[in-house]
Amino acid sequence: MRLSTKTNQQPSAVTAILGVGDFFGELCLAGYPLRMSTAVALTASSIRTIQKKQMLQMLRKKNKASNSMVAYLLSSVQKYMDHVSELLTSSAEQRLARVLLRLAHLDKKGPAVVEIPVLSHQVLAEMVGTTRPRVNLFMNRFRKKGYIDYDGGLEVRESLRKVLRNH
Description:
Blueprint: E1 2-5, E2 13-17, E3 38-40, H1 52-60, H2 64-89, H3 92-103, H4 121-128, H5 132-144, E4 148-150, E5 154-156, H6 162-165
Helix pairs in contact: 3-4, 4-5
């Protein structure tokens, strides 16, 4: 799932890539208006809705569920800070590599996704914060170096991590 945010005069920007067990819409707990972001499923997904009132009651109980939510919220703050830092300090090629590694679950422990859904280069460009032609250039470069493969789906290999170390 990807979250995008759009301001009045700016194009939309991808602000997060979510996985299993992640939350979205949590800004409503702080009084932000409805629909600060647009969520788009990248694969078949199941979404559970928790009403604001119910979530606030759960957070007040100070139990395992509330501790889990607070931990998630704190890790979200760290992810946003990392995302902003990445935008300011990484090249578009490195950001694309990170997005692909994240989509293939090669950025964390646990099983990797063998084949991720094919996303258009335009969607990848929005996720990375660059243009479609640059994504096309980087994807071709990654394929030539054997970091990725297209064959009906998109296969991302662990060797793509080299892009992050080479800059």
